[in-house]
Amino acid sequence: MSDAERSVRSARWFASVRTAFSDRMVVVVGASAVVVYLGTLWNGHALDDMIVIVRNPVIHSLSGLWRAFTQAYLGGQMYRPLAIASYVADWPWHSAAWYHAVNVLWHAAASVLTAVLARRWVGERGALAAGLLFAVHPVHVEAVANIVGRDELMAACFAVLAVYAALVRGSVGWSAAALSLGLLCKENAAVVPGLIVWGWVLGIGTERPPRRRITQFVGSWVVIAVLYGVVRWAVLRGNEDHGLAPVLVGQSGLTVRLTALAALADVTRLLVFPLKLRIDYSPDERTAVTSWGDGRVALGALCVVLLVTLIVAAWRRGRRVEAFGLGWTAIALSPVANLLFPTGILVAERTLYLPSVGLVLAAGSWFARWSVPRAWLVAGAVLVAAGVRTATRVPVWRTTYTAVLSILEDSPRSYVGPMRMAGAYLDQHQSERALDAARQALAIYRGDLTIYMSGAVAAFAAGRPATADSLLAELERSCPTCPGKYYHTESEVLRRIGYPAEADSLDARVR
Fold first, then answer.
1. What are the angstrom distances between the C-alpha of 311 and each of 130, 224, 305, 315, 321?
2. First vs last Cα of the chain: how many Å apart?
3. How many CB atoms lie within 10 A of CB 5?
4. Contact call for residues 146 and 399 (beta carbons, < 8 A)
5. What is the pLDDT of residue 63?
6. pLDDT average, residue stretch 146-153
């Protein structure tokens, strides 16, 4: 292709993009995404926001814009420099409302991009339905209303752009650029090549690319994988992995897969009927599944069979977009499903952000075939109900305290509620209450080192050194390598939140 042809092609692409983003559908979808999340502007920092943003010195200086690319996310085996850099850019405003407003704009962008992608294949009406459903879907609240969910929003935006560039425009360069940016936001953008290949298999797009173009795409993925892998290794080497989801710790490979299969029932319900939402899915709210005869396995397997059946049926009937959307959901879910490899969570609503793009694509295609009066009546009722559920869920993320109260109410059998409450009491310097909460958490689950640390700090603060020593001794038996770097990190945190004497006690214990 000559330079002149490339220039003409690029000009046409940019013209089509300007046209796509300048119409009424874009305004409606984007405005809907903003309206249902207006309540986030009154939210503050909650839960992991405190660790990632408020107490993270990297965020508090403009030097963090480049330091973010040289440090691990949360000091573990995660690398998300673009997300961290975005928090740095927000810090000068010193406003939680600003952080939340940026999150809402990223969500609006993801909603619009989903609608624009859908319009290429299902028409204006189906695209509008897909975009609106994505904008108001209640399962997105955790990703949008909690500031640190921004990595999900950014990665999804770039993933959709990468798929659009590949399947609609056939552009290797733009798709590769979007994929690279997505990976720097969150690791789950790695599913993009799988989404593109799935589109090729189904014949989705303006035209099936020739073998030479496919080779170029594959070559770009190899180059990105190598470069990303080298940079990631250089930054993260020597860092400790934060470990498995608590319910999976110490379990055999078979038990991990059975538990993951059973969890697909939760995932299916959250994507299709998200009336009941939870911040936490931990022991004893969710326990390990050790036998094929467990009814939870049968329910999860039924969800898998249903998905495969729907994909095959759509494929055979020539409904390629529906098959593509349902396959998108499965592919995007694969890195966090614990079926291929165990991860640090069992179920988290924020991880369903990118998988839900596929669901709304399939729903938009399905909706486009309905007669207009019936279609808009049903769709309107669904969208209003979803929007109301989303808007009413947003205040749960107002503060750490409101989020913890939600955990205690929605997941009363989980140890995470009292564990988080212990941390909240420590922030308020209510040591006796913090110690009681830590004991409640330990009565449910004893495998999380955070509980021992919170309890020990509370015991030191309450003037009970013997209790603190016993808790730290149990922590050290569970994790012989923890004294040292772990204690040092915790002591630094304690000094920042007003516990200098307790920090000295930890440092003395290491010595």
1. 18, 30, 10, 6, 10
2. 68
3. 9
4. no
5. 86
6. 94
Copy the structure tokens of residue 289. Answer: 């599944």
The pLDDT of residue 207 is above 70: no
Assign 325 to helix, strand or coil. Answer: helix
Using a 10 angstrom Cβ sphere, with 0-12 exposed, 13-18 middle and 19 or more buried, the burial of residue 233 is: exposed
Q: For residues 227 and 236, what is the distance between their CA atoms, to the nearest angstrom?
A: 14
Q: What is the DSSP string of 238-299?
A: TPPP----GGGTT--HHHHHHHHHHHHHHHHHHHH-TTS--S---TTTS-----TT-HHHHH
Q: Tell me the C-alpha distance between 497 and 150, whole Å.
A: 25
Q: Which of 130, 52, 60, 44 is nearest to 357 (CA)?
A: 130
Q: Cα(5)–Cα(62) distance, rounded to whole angstroms?
A: 42
The angle formed by the CA atoms of residues 298, 304 and 308, to the nearest 5 degrees, is 140
Tokens representing 75? 């000091």
Read off the tokens for 322: 């529906």
- Please name which of 175, 163, 172 lies closest in space to residue 202, comparing C-alpha atoms: 163
User: Among 70, 78, 4, which residue's Cα sits nearest to residue 48?
Assistant: 78
Nearest to 347 by CA among 277, 412, 272, 280: 280
Residue showing tokens 């009927």: 273
Q: How many residues does the chain have?
A: 511
User: Which residue type sits at 454?
Assistant: S
Locate 440 and state its tokens. Answer: 């409640």
Neighbouring CB atoms inside 10 A of 304's CB total 15
Q: What amino acid occupies position 194?
A: G
pTM of the entire predicted model: 0.88
Distance (Å, whole) CA 243 – CA 260: 16
Residue 78: Cβ within 10 Å count: 18
Give the per-residue pLDDT at 398. 93
Asked if 510 and 484 count as a contact pair (C-beta separation under 8 A), the reply is yes
Type of residue at 141: V
Average the pLDDT over each of 12-16, 293-297, 397-401 and give the range with the smallest value: 12-16
Q: Is the pLDDT of residue 78 over 90?
A: no
What does the DSSP assignment read for 162-192? HHHHHHTS--HHHHHHHHHHHHHH-GGGGGH
The tokens 């002149």 sit on which residue? 4
DSSP-based helix, strand, coil % in the chain, nearest 5: 75, 0, 25
